[in-house]
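User: Here's a protein and a ligand (glycine). What would the complex look like?
Assistant: Let me lay out the input and then the predicted complex.
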Amino acid sequence: MTEDRTPAVAENPEAGGEEQPQEFKGRKNGLYSGVSDELAASMKSGWADTELHGLEPVAQAPYAAERRARLSAAFPGERLVVPAGNLKVRANDSDYSFRAASEYVHLTGDQTEDAVLVAEPTGDSGHVFGLYLLPRSDRENGEFWLDGYGELWVGRRHSLAEQEQLLGLPARDVRRAAEELADRAKSGTVPTRIVRGYDAGLEAALADVLDAGKDAEFKEFLSGLRLVKDEWEIGELRAACAATVKGFTDVVRELGQAVATSERWIEGTFWRRARVEGNDVGYGSICAAGAHATTLHWVRNDGAVRPGELLLLDAGVETHTLYTADVTRTLPIDGRFSELQRKIYQAVYDAQEAGIAAVKPGARFRDFHDASQRVLAERLLAWGLLDPSLYDVEKVLELGLQRRWTLHGTGHMLGLDVHDCAHSRREEHVDALLVPGMVLTVEPGLYFQEDDLTVPAEYRGIGVRIEDDILVTADGNENLSAGLPRRAEDVEAWMASLA
Ligand code: GLY
Ligand code: MN
């Protein structure tokens, strides 16, 4: 990484005259001690005007406007503040890569760090929406090259006028947001809510007028607002699944390299496919070979990949618009399932089939979970892992005894977050009925831990999960990740075709 982001201007006042950009503090060990008047003058001028005009709104803009209208209707007379979040320091002057808050992205179609969406109530119980954003860097005061976040260091950003055209919202300088919002909140009687957890500075500025309970309600509402996807979002989830299919295909093609190296090769291969297409991954890829497959969120990915064992790959591409897939395939590393692996795989497949069949409008959210668990409980009884002389399937399910090996819920909502809508109200989510436009995963699994003395030794260290992304349609469902084979023999044929 290039050093000397910020010359030590402020530490060496003699180095400059009155026009020096004193506000930009230099690095303690910077090699340049200051900026001469001549250099400062040079850097101010000789730059082309690159302002963009006549920009088309982003494709998401009308959908975001519709979501804001629903938000406005739910909170008449209240000021609503939705921050995108801030960069977090990784070390010194390098930051973690930024990922905007899903609530902000959903309502704006934008992903800019530090940004804030504000809904200001109007007299007719509607709202005027506006953005606070960081403008382009000032060239007159040297900010663009002397500040570590100046555009010369981090790249050109859109001007406020450009953003207004792209997003269809008026935009103001975010450096005034805390002061302006605090002034308005303290001088009037309009109640203010904020989505907490993303912008500590704004929360501190508004602390006197905020109410934790009301803010929690606000977050709950915004999470629930994402339960049903609009057609644009469904398109993005389709794209995420299509890109994920390519990532899995690359992994299978390169399994030989993984055998020669480690699970890391698999993680890197999937991520490379995401990145070369301008995307990212929606969560840490789970590249679990052998007994690692029995660890639900195995993201260390540093183990050996051995022929004869299974690879559980749970990975999803997140589009550049931040919608993610979440797909799992369990693959025989040498291309063919052993007899026992096939038996366990078939049980999980059958459980997934039963689960997917239960995804339809009017079904309860938990129906697909119950359907999958029933199949797995039956199979565990048939194999004698649960004693059929003590329990029938109803009793197993009532006591939840199958959970020793099924471990987790059979699925979750999917969207901007991999576990989407996690903060929504139970009554509109797990205790609700499915409606068209919902997208959820169906992902049953069986996991036999290496140290589980209650199962025969040959089961130990085997983990199988199959996961697909299912859209609820008007008359049933559509598997958005059907591009990847699922049946054992189809998986084998697919792997052979790529070998
Ligand atoms: N894909 C990881 C999970 O659903 O927890
Ligand atoms: Mn999942």
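Summary: The first helix runs from residue 37 to 44.
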